[in-house]
Amino acid sequence: MKGLLLVLLCLLHQGLMYDHPDEVVWQNRNADIPYIANPDGTPYVISHRGACGQMPDHSSAAYATAYYDGTHFDEPDLQVTKDGVLFIMHNTCMKETTNIEKLHQFDDRRTDVKFSTNETELHCEDDYLVNDFTWQELIDAGLKVRNRFKTRSHYYDDLYPPMRLEDAIELMLDLNEKAPVKDRKFKTGLYIETKAVRFYKDERNVDIAQILYDTLEKYDLHTVEKATEKLPIFIESFEQDSLLYFKSKTDLPTVQLMTDSFEYDLDWISSYSNGVGPKHTFMFNYDGEEFNLDKPSRFIQQCHALDMRVHPWVFQDDILVYSEDAIDEAKIWETKGVDGYFTEFPHSTLNTLRYSEANRRKRLQSE
Ligand SMILES: *[C@@H]1O[C@H](CO)[C@@H](O)[C@H](O)[C@H]1NC(C)=O
């Protein structure tokens, strides 16, 4: 009797975990992208701005920390300088995450810029726009990066310069070669976001997606076949333009990011996107669904039916939403059936998944 109950419970749990209404479509669509999902069946851990829970956002230290923690991907956000260099930073302006206010030679370069992306209304108020500077003048002046949260450690602030995309690629290639992660089928990759695409195109006449493609080509990482060998790559954006551009150029996987301030047509998105990166609320409240911790997520089921992977954002151990405990909260996402976590604390997310019973079973099955 007890055994039977256990079997029933397991079946119930498995059913909640991965409910792909149409296995056949799922198998075919992403079949040519070996690293589309973690081969051991557990969700991917994608380090948002690197391990920025501990280190300054997008510093080489944050990327290396996440790497040594065992992350599957580091996640650069791309801006462009005046001279066309891909500059890794979340914001289009520099005040929040750099020491630029200390560099008084730039005092008269403050500006006000207002524009909208499909992520937010951006208002750089009395701030320093990345695109008004050349890469070299920022580096020569001693620009350094900082952690964005007052509540996190600032011990490592103002030590590391920002990175170009090229620096991040070279760092990851070096780590993958010199410090390979044991027992992993794929190398650690980069999950790259194009930011403020329309703003750069309309206001500054520069196509961030095109520069990104050319940079990947320079490092011979511009197709799935090449990326699989050296450095797995995903391309993500809130704006569809750069995803459509990538789909027209290459077979690298694309991910449409989603906030809760728009209506989305999942059928249309699945025509150009291998996955979606929704705000975490989509797992519970999409399309009028009532918040429920225990029921399967209709949003995730619909995405899976369209053969799209689901990587919600962003998991923060110090800003919990559904629980008072980071392990319990990570398990809630897992139970909903996510295929990856954007997280700022990769060590803890990885440990939760490593020791979770459901994932242990999946790993055993895949061996
Ligand atoms: C922004 O999102 C909406 C809703 O999906 C879409 O209709 C629109 O084309 C998007 N704009 C860009 C620039 O991607």
TrEMBL record:
Key words, A-Z: Glycerol metabolism, Hydrolase, Signal
Top-level taxon: Eukaryota
InterPro entries referenced in this protein's UniProt entry, alphabetically: GP_PDE_dom (IPR030395), PLC-like_Pdiesterase_TIM-brl (IPR017946)
Homology family: Belongs to the glycerophosphoryl diester phosphodiesterase family.
Name the UniProt record assigns to this protein: glycerophosphodiester phosphodiesterase
Species name: Euplotes crassus
EC number: 3.1.4.46
Example GO BP: lipid metabolic process
Residues annotated as domain GP-PDE: 43-353
Signal peptide: 1-17
GO MF entry, a single one: glycerophosphodiester phosphodiesterase activity
Pfam families xrefs: GDPD (PF03009)
Catalyses which reaction(s): a sn-glycero-3-phosphodiester + H2O = an alcohol + sn-glycerol 3-phosphate + H(+)
